Every structure is written in C-alpha cells, then in structure tokens.
Amino acid sequence: MAGPAPIVKRFREVYPSSGEPRVWRAPGRVNLIGEHTDYNLGRVLPMAIQLECAVATAAFDGNVLRVISDQLSRGAQWRIDDIPNLEPQGDWSDRVAGIAWELARRGVTIEPQNVLISSTVPLGGGLSSSAAFGVALALALGGARDPLELAQVARAAEMDFVGVPCGIMDQFVSTHGQAGAAILLDCRSFEFRPVKLPQEIAVVAANSMVKHDLGNSAYRRRVEECADAARLLGVASLREATADRLKELSGVPLKRARHVVTENIRVERFAAAAQRGDPEEMGRAMIESHRSLRDDYEVSCAELDFLVETALEVPGVFGARLTGGGFGGCTVNLVRREAVNGLEAALISSYRAAFGRTPEIHVCAASAGASQLI
Ligand code: GAF
Question: Which residues form the pocket of ligand 1, taking CB atoms under 6 Å from any ligand atom?
Fold first, then answer.
C-alpha cells in the first residue's frame, strides 16, 4: 500500500480551496479458483491484492457531491437533493452515482463534499477494479459499516443501478481480505475462512490487455443459463445440483451446470491441498478449472488460452487459469517463487510475438480488506 500521501497531495492540487481530506482504500482481487460460482451460491477462493482504489474526501460548502476520477481523467457532480432519484446515464459516472443512490436508499444522508478517486487496479483487467472502486467509495460516503453490509452496498449499486447481475465475490473479498491469506467463501451462507498458501508459492497475474466487448452480454447470458439449468433440475440454485443429476440435462444447460458443479468441488480440493502444502494438486485443480471455463462455460478467448498454455510450459509453474469474468482480463498463475522471473520473461516474449501486445505482470501479495487510512 502506497499510504495516503500521494492522494492527499493530488487532492490539494485538484481541490485547492477544500480542507484536509480523509482517505479510504479498498483492494482489488485475484480469484484463485471458483469462477462463475458466486451467483450460483457456490464457493469461491479469491485473494485481496496490493492493487487498490483510494478515495479522498473533504466536506465543502454548497449542495453538491463533486467527484473526480484520476484514472479516468473525468469529473461529475450531483445536487445532493437529486441523489435519491438519480437514473443511470450509461457511462463511468453510474458507478459513483450508484453508490450514492444505494446509500440514500438505505437511509444514509450524503453530505456535500469534494471527492477524489485514484486507483492502481487496471480497468477491465479482471482484477475487480469496479468492486474496489465501489467499496472504497461506499466507505468514504457512507462511513464505517459492518464489512458484509459494505460489500452488499457496493454489490447492490452494481446490480440495481449500473445493471450488472454480478455475484458477491469481488465486493466480499475487497472488504474481508486478509494480509497473507486467500479467503474461502461460501456464497450462500457467507461463511468464510482464511486459506494460507504454501510459503514457496507466488501468485502471479498476467493481464492479456484485451477486453472483448462480448463480455458484458455474455456474463448476463451465463447468469440466465444457470438459472434455466437450475429450473430444469428443480433446485433453487446450481449450488444444490449434484454430479449424479447432470445426466438429466443436455446441451447448453448441461455444459453450464457441469462447470458449476465441478468447479465447486475443485474449490474444496484446492483449499484442502493448500492446507496440506500440496502445490501440484492446487495446480491441477486450476488447470482443470481453466479447461472447464473454456469448454463448458465458454468464457475464455484465444489470448487467455495462449497465456495459460504458455505458462504451463515454464518450469516451476504448477497451474494457470483465467481469473474473473473472462473474455479477456487476466490469467492467474501458481508458481515457485524462484521461477517468477522465468515465467514473466516467457509470457512477455511469447505473447508479444503472438498478439503484438505486452502483458502486464503483477506478482500478487495477499492484502487486508478495505480500511480508512487517515
Ligand atoms: C465478475 C463478477 F463481478 C463476479 O461476481 C464473478 O461472477 C466473476 O466475474 C466470475 O467468477 O468478476
């Protein structure tokens, strides 16, 4: 964490007549395993990371909430009285307006203030830039709240205002992350526990630097297809489907349900292997996860498949898979610490040669959930 100094300095530059700001932060995440299981009320195993969104805010006279995003070089403002009746505009400002609107819906009074948002989580990179943004802003505008409620505020803004039917994983880990551990979460009961990774292992995210447009509509379609499959099986969610019932399905419902059922099992396998210090088995579960996302869930793309297959040829790599929603963004790699440089070099040179782009490589450090800095 860089600490509050850079954002405070920048706040003084963009709002020279404001008072001294208070500062909050919320982390992005990398999901180790358990993909597209959260909205099926299954299990996920994400890790909050050092890339994070910081929000600085100070009260200001007038009847206005004024917001500047450094990363987007954009600003927007709303009259305080209009906040409960805001409508989405279909642009970046919805993510800010949605949080204010959701807090107002929960009875929180939004005070007139100047806000600066500054994030190191790459946009559209599959490391959960929007949840980090939403959680940090909800904390800044809504004050200290229980971490689960904070996650629910950010998720509700995303679902009910922005219109993305996402699960709870990203917001939950952004509020519940722990330094030095990933978080095993049951998305039905919200029970969770930290999972420490073996000492000799590094977690490396590789950003494909692409985000195919298909992503948003395909995500929505997958949510619907899973609901259809659950309906066909007569269960409330695919979390309740079991492997022996898959033979009752065929075609698309079978493929989607098979991914969810097997992925939930893989999460347990991965967590048990982490506990006994078995990186080979953790890696196998990740590789199977990627193949299932590629073949059954159909959310991979040529760039992600290439990064995964390239990584798996590098000595010291145990496993690799796409992380996040898919159709671009990042892969996550489980690798022996001393093999990190070799992996980075192999991914950069092969990917450049194949796709003409340089992947961004992030060695991920398991980080604490959202907090106030000053
Ligand atoms: C995105 C969503 F926001 C998450 O809720 C989750 O469904 C993920 O895609 C796929 O596992 O990050």
Answer: 35-36, 38-39, 128, 166-167, 169-170, 324-325
